[in-house]
What we know:
A: eight-stranded mixed sheet; 24% strand; B: alpha/beta
Amino acid sequence: MKKIFxxxxxxxxxxxxxxxxxxxxxSIKNPTISLKDLKGETHTLAQYQxxxxxxxxxxTYCPPCVKEMPSMNNxxxxxxxxxxxxxxxxxDMAETKAEVxxxxxxxxxxxxxxxxxxxxxxxxxxVFAAPSNFIINKQGQIAYTLFGGVxxxxxxxxxxxxxxxxx
Amino acid sequence: MFIKNxxxxxxxxxxxxxxxxxxxxxxxxxxxxxxxxxxxxxxxILIIGFACDNGKxxxxxxxxxSLAEDGxxxxxxxxxxxxxxxxxxxxxxxIPNEDLTHIIYEAISTNKEVYIVASGPDTQLLxxxxxxxxxxxxxxxxxxxxxLLFPRLNDGAPEPGVEPKYVESVGSTTIPLxxxxxxxxxxxxxxxxxxxxxxxxGSRVISKIVPDIRGYFFNRADPNKxxxxxxxxxxxxxxxxxxxxxxxxx
Lengths: 167, 250
């Protein structure tokens, strides 16, 4: 009886922590990005058509953003090993290059960090909180959104992205 | 031992000088009695600070003392403690509107110019109070304005790519509003949107970003240099806000 109760409790707590990618119902029809990474190279969303893209708006002062970065590294690894065409574009919300560089040295994200020092894309994407996540399908449209920190390497998310890459 | 005693006496004397706080009880229409921390002052401005913290916030008390020293009277009613309510958003709806407006009535009866101030989610209570004051006391003097420090007025979790939804009290008042937001918080990106929604009720809204500070900076265990300065100068921030509100009324 005790074991059943513990299993029930465990399953409930896992459910509470599980990711919930929500099908996008907003009004952004043709999302665009044209931002530089930390090396000065420009990335556009259009150049990643044919891949599923996670566009994340984040900031160094946002604790859930920092906490989930290792799981984003893992997710990228898992999907690459499975041969899923996938890219992460993590857009820093209007901080300085020096701040972000110091952060990258410490936390070591292994995905592309883009700088939006003026905040231009933040308004365009209707982002009012961090972390704000958008999953873009291979055709360049927003398929899912997710607000808040999450374990990105969970099987649920990996499965959803794998499934999306086949569409 | 002798020096220790002297230091103790000095500290007691200093405490007595700086803490001008009085506790005043006001009987409310619901039959409850609200305990108000009053920082009396002789000037013609009275601020009601809706600090829903059951009297725990040390920075708000220090700020009130500083304002009182500059002639601005401060009242801090213990709204949650009065009804034994927990600190949660749903608690704000449990507070009877007539009780809230009665406190405003008592404040306006002093013939001072009355402003209301709140921070974070407590700003929901502030807006609700302002809206009901006008409805329940239509022939009376209105509140002069409200200061919303780092407001958190979203109704539910924000949804990426979708315009935010706010609690019902947003856009329900006509009094002038001053909104301050931290520069290092994602909420700064929603400030224009929130200001427009607040103004939709008829309020003149002034919004400013305080650079380099995070949300709830005054309660953080790891404040940066700017946050330390702003925390110690919260009274200055409120006085600047009062200035903007007064200028906007001219």
